[in-house]
């Protein structure tokens, strides 16, 4: 039935100026007109605005901002990323489901999306509020042909892909706080969580979780994080006088998957250096005073560089230089840190 709905939707999209008769759809699909009618009703329930006429047939009048596999795949053009997409109205965590699929041997580039997560999470075990219909909550299964030393580069590459997609679809210039928080005006708009399954020196699979605040209003964020969280909608309204309703999440998702495939190909081709240089273009960390927290230790310094493995190079106040691979990094002037 899903395949039938996809074909009907495709035909309606191709004929937006004209009605398509139920008989024509029935003949194309080799199903009864009753089956066509049922599929049309299901599409209407999902939010598609379709005009039905007993004499003329069906006409697609409006495509809503909904997330489903055929809206994302339409014009995607990737070879690997997004060829298999699983969409849910509600799920505990897209990362959890993606991990289950990966353990069962799903294809490289498999994507899991949800309108709402009940147990969304961010870095360091923090919870991530995943409101229904307000954001993009997505996980991608990757099976990179690289060693463990290059895992951090994949995290940086994902951040670059998101920033490039923001620019491509919305004309927004976002920054990256090391290693992979996407920020607008000093506030976080997107978080990226990387989880991995490995054995010895081999990566079995990697789960790339991406959470984007798309259309949240400021009042919809918990009060304790309003000073350091934002959404694409808030930024567009305040900085460009534009309404987020001009954009669809499926278009942004498609752009992210497309950009992600480009950087993923670079990783598999051993071009980590190219990705690091691209990451530096969007960094809001380099040259800034930072506070590093790792386990029970805390120290301050200036973020000087990112090396070819994705490590943050920090020169401490006493002149000591450290290479940071993990830990919590606060940057002066960002995410509420002053």
From TrEMBL:
InterPro entries: aa-tRNA-synth_II/BPL/LPL, Bifunct_BirA, Biotin_CoA_COase_ligase, BPL_C, BPL_LPL_catalytic, HTH_11, Transcriptional_repressor_C, WH-like_DNA-bd_sf. Its EC number is 6.3.4.15. Keywords: ATP-binding, Biotin, DNA-binding, Ligase, Nucleotide-binding, Repressor, Transcription, Transcription regulation. Residues 22-41 bind DNA. Biotin binds at residues 93-95, 117, 121-123, 188. CDD domains: BPL. Residues 61-268 form the BPL/LPL catalytic domain. GO terms for cellular component: cytoplasm. PANTHER family: BIOTIN PROTEIN LIGASE (PTHR12835), BIOTIN--PROTEIN LIGASE (PTHR12835:SF5). This is Bifunctional ligase/repressor BirA. It comes from Acetivibrio thermocellus (strain ATCC 27405 / DSM 1237 / JCM 9322 / NBRC 103400 / NCIMB 10682 / NRRL B-4536 / VPI 7372). The lineage of its organism: Bacteria, Bacillati, Bacillota, Clostridia, Eubacteriales.
